[in-house]
Amino acid sequence: MKSSLLKLGLASVIGFGAVTTSQAATKLDMATPWGGGIMLEYVARGAAANMELFTSNNVKVEVFPGGTLGKALKVTDTVKKGVAQIGHNWSGYDWGVDKTAILFGGFAGSMSWDKMMHWTFRGGGKEMWMDWRMAEFGVAAVPCGSAPRELFAHSHKPIRSLEDYKGMKVRTAGAWAEIAQKLGASTVILAGAEVYPALERKVVDAIEWGTPTHNIVMGFEKVAKYIVVPGVHQPIAMHECAVNKKVWDGMSDMVKKQITAGGKMMTWDLYMKLGHDDAPNWMKYVNSKKNEIIDLPQSFKDAAKKATDEWAEETGKKANDWFRKIWASQNAYKDAWSQAHRYR
């Protein structure tokens, strides 16, 4: 990841080189919720490497696994308090504080990756993301990773119908923790490092985590027979890098642009990596003698959409103005793309 070829490619894609200065390097500790795997080793460390690259090592970022600098699911709080100066995170983990978080992080009602990326970088999304984080959490935030639709579940029990799903205990996160309950499941939220042990010990019946590449690294297929698709709960996942406000305000405009560029590069790079790696990793599941792949029936997908629409409507009535503003912006952008399939 830190090879000279990759560094040259990153700089050329962004369109500007880092500015070299003789000032002493600024050291930033990065908190994460990730216990290991691709999210820690490739995404968080990769974003950190990009930031060091674009600042010509005038900013040095040390990445810490989840739970090292603070609670794994409280990265934003850890950054706000200054225990860490920067964090790599999925904003949806803050949905318990502000439901708006899942609109940026992605949930069952989100746009596809293509539309979401355009809204984020061209439709005003990243600006609203920054404004919301500053206003409600007192941290700066820039996009710092993206992933396409996830697998729906690694499960000890087959999920062939809505009836099968009812009564199951499922590890999830974000809005699906409430939407799944509308479908009859019970849900539990666990930090990344706790997911595999919970599935292995059958503390939960099923878990959702990521794409084939995310999941095969974690080894979920080794302890649960059934692999269920598609991920109706998560058509896209967007990640962020949050920076302590005092630290952010103390950065020059150039360094802010370089930090933002490092995050943007990882946002595109992760999607490309997953697209490239998911296909062969998926075939490992297809060819497995120990696992069975289940495709959710249309009736399940329809029920999930209905429950998601109900959740969004109910939440919009109870949530703050930020939720309504962002949700309206995303829906307007989705409507603007309603005919895009005819020419794209």
Please summarize what this structure is.
The protein has 344 residues and is α/β, with parallel strands linked by helices. Helices cover 48% and strands 16% of the residues. A six-stranded mixed beta sheet has the order 7-6-8-5-9-11, sandwiched between helices. A five-stranded mixed beta sheet has the order 2-1-3-10-4, sandwiched between helices.
Walkthrough of the structure:
With 344 residues, the protein is of the alpha/beta class. It has a domain at 4-147 and 236-276: Bacterial extracellular solute-binding protein, family 7 (D-Maltodextrin-Binding Protein, domain 2). 48% of the residues lie in helices and 16% in strands. The protein is built from 14 helices and eleven strands. The chain has helices spanning 4-14, 37-54, 75-80, 101-105, 113-122, 125-137, 162-165, 176-182, 192-200, 212-218, 245-249, 253-286, 298-318, 321-336; strands at residues 26-31, 59-63, 86-90, 139-147, 153-155, 169-172, 186-189, 206-207, 226-229, 237-244, 292-295. The strands form two sheets. The chain has a six-stranded mixed β-sheet with strand order 7-6-8-5-9-11, with helices on both faces. It has a five-stranded mixed β-sheet with strand order 2-1-3-10-4, sandwiched between helices. Helix 2 (37-54) links the parallel strand 1 (26-31) and strand 2 (59-63). Helix 2 runs antiparallel to helix 12, helix 8 (176-182) crosses helix 13 and helix 10 (212-218) crosses helix 12. The model is unreliable at 1-22 (pLDDT under 50).
